[in-house]
Structures are given as structure tokens and as C-alpha cells.
Amino acid sequence: MTQDDRYTLATGELGAYRLEILNRIHMPHTEFLLGRVGLRQGMQVADIGCGTGNVSNWLAQQVGSSGLVLSVDSSSAQLQQAQRNAEALTLNNIKFVEASAYKTGLPYNSFDLVYCRFLLMHLTRPADAVDEMRSLLKPNGVLVCEEADFSCVFCDPPSPAYNRRFELFLALSDIRNQNFRMGIRLYRIFQEVGLTVSEVSMYQPTIIRGEEKRLVDLTLSEAADAFIEAGLTTREEIDKMVAQIKTLATGENTVFGIPRVTQIWARK
Ligand SMILES: C[S@@+](CC[C@H](N)C(=O)[O-])C[C@H]1O[C@@H](n2cnc3c(N)ncnc32)[C@H](O)[C@@H]1O
Questions:
Q1: Where would a tag sit more exposed on the chain, N or C end, judged by fewer CB atoms within 10 A?
Q2: Which residues neighbour 2 within 8 Å (Cβ) at sequence distance 6 or greater?
Q3: pLDDT for position 66
Q4: Cα(244) to centroid of ligand 1, in Å?
Q5: 3-state secondary structure (DSSP) of residue 113
Q6: Overall number of domains in the chain
Q7: Is residue 49 part of a domain?
Q8: Which residues is 202 bridged to in the sheet?
Q9: Apex 71 CA angle, 69 and 76, nearest 5
């Protein structure tokens, strides 16, 4: 991580439940995409910004004992949690590496598939990280990225607290020179680093019930200190918003449209 990169959300045990909910929402789309790009047994795979390892563990199961997954994150707390999750699944073809996405230290020209999800939006130099990922690929290897865009969410019936919650994230990412509209930038970034894109697609999850709906208030609570420190809001406003969104989330009278996700892949 460079000095000006700051991760907004909780890490380790504190953030694990939120990432699990996030994974429940997105994993069917991730699985479909990775199947489509040709993920198979025996592959050497790198998962960059792996978090608590939800996708990494699934990747390890797919590549099997003849394959290997190297999972990188800059947070030791995330990696400890990821290690515990992998041990619980008795996976022994996965290794966790504490490193920056800008300089992973992994061997270049070595991977069949390099993957990242919801990482680039947190970085101040996303193109440098994509360039590093490109370097890790063998010739003809595949780079797959999935990133969100916070600018096209909705709640119906409309909720000012819901809209404000996403405005806060966009404002903070602008202040920190990160990009929570990353989804729509991905194609340009891939082109900037000289990749010929095979496909770009998008999906927007809509949630009407269940614990998945809590993703919106849980993520707001995790980022509260960062918003307050940046002078964007007060604890009082956050507490009110969390309570209002939680009420919407526990009922079934609203539909949440959460950030649209861009899926992109290219061959080296
Ligand atoms: C939103 S989480 C996504 C985790 C995982 N990819 C998933 O989809 O469940 C983003 C992860 O990126 C990691 N991260 C942030 N900046 C990083 C950097 N510069 N290098 C490596 N990892 C970074 C964070 O520690 C966090 O675990």
C-alpha cells in the first residue's frame, strides 16, 4: 500500500461477517464469470486483495490438488482470518502472502489466471496494480477483475438515508483520490496497460429480504470513523442513518439496488 492509500473498511474478524454477506450476494456471478473464462483443475491462480479469502477458497477447490492459489492482501488481519477459513476447509493448495497489490513479490509470467474483486476501487493508482497483475500472467493467461460503481444505486420506495449513505462513500473516495465509481473506469484502465479486453459486462444486485439486505447498514457502520474524520458527517447523523437503513433492511417493503458491478477480462 502506498502512504496515501487508506482502506476504509474493517479488517480481520471485525469485517469477516460483512465480507461473508457480500460474498453470498456476488459469488454466483463470480462463479459464472470464472467458469466462462476457463477456470479449471491444475491452474496456477493469484487472487489479489483477497480479503478474508472467500473467493480464494472457492478457487482452491476448483483448481484441485494439482493446482495452486496464491492469495495476496496488504492486511495481516485479513490474511489471518483467511488462513483460518482455509484451514477449516482443510485446503492445502492455497498460500497467503502479505504484500501490496502494486508490488506483490509473486513471480512474473507464472499464472494462468489472476483475479481481483473490489480491490481497485480502494487504490489511488489502480492502473499500476492492473499492470502488476498483467505481469504475473503467463502468455495467454487471463486477467479477471470485478469492481463496483456506487453512483447508480436505488431504494424504492425512495429513502434519503439510503441515498446519503452512498453519497458519503463517493465523497470520501474523491477526498482520498480513490474511485468508488471504479466499475465504469475498468475498460479504460485495461487499455492503458496495453491489454486487449475480451469482454465487459455488468450486473446490479437487487435485494428484497434476508440478511444480505444488511450489507448496506453494516458497511456504513464500518466506515463511520472515516467519514467523521474526513469532516463529511457527524456520529449523530451516522447513527440515525444506520437505524433508518436497518429498519428498511429488516422489512420486506423496500427493494435495494446495490452498486452495479463491472466484470472484465482479458488475455495477455
Ligand atoms: C473489499 S475487500 C475485498 C476482498 C475480496 N476480494 C472479496 O471480494 O471478498 C478489499 C481488500 O483489498 C485489500 N487491500 C486494500 N488495499 C490493498 C493494497 N494496496 N494491496 C493489497 N490489498 C489491498 C484490503 O485489505 C481488503 O482485504
A1: N
A2: 100, 102, 124, 125
A3: 97
A4: 28
A5: strand
A6: 1
A7: yes
A8: 262
A9: 150
Residue 4 placed within a domain: no
Domain enclosing residue 249, as ranges: 13-267
In single-letter form, the type of residue at position 3 comes to Q
138 class by beta-carbon count within 10 Å (0-12 exposed, 13-18 middle, 19+ buried):
middle
The SS3 assignment for 66 reads coil
115: CATH: 3.40.50.150
What is the residue type of 83? Q
What is the Cα–Cα distance from 196 to 130, expressed in whole angstroms?
A: 13
**Is 237 a member of any domain?**
yes
What residues flank ligand 1, with Cβ below 6 Å? Answer: 1, 5, 7, 11, 19, 23, 49-51, 54-55, 73-75, 78, 100-101, 117-119, 122-123
Residue 137 is which amino acid? L
C-alpha–C-alpha distance, residues 58 and 51, integer Å:
13
- Domain assignment of residue 254, yes or no: yes
Instruction: Provide the grid cell at 206.
Output: 437487487
Low-confidence ranges of the chain (pLDDT < 70): 1-4
107 grid coordinates: 513471480
* Cα angle: 51, vertex 97, 75; to 5 degrees: 45
pLDDT of residue 266: 98
Ligand 1 pocket: which of 6, 7, 98, 114 to mutate (most atoms within 8 A of CB): 7
Grid cell for residue 163: 441515498
Which tens digits make up the pLDDT trace of 20-76? 999 999 999 999 999 999 999 999 999 999 999 999 999 999 999 999 999 999 999
Q: What is the per-residue pLDDT for 4?
A: 53
From 17, 30, 85, 119, the mutation candidate for ligand 1 (largest count of ligand atoms within 8 A of CB) is 119
Nearest residue CA, atom 25 of ligand 1? 75
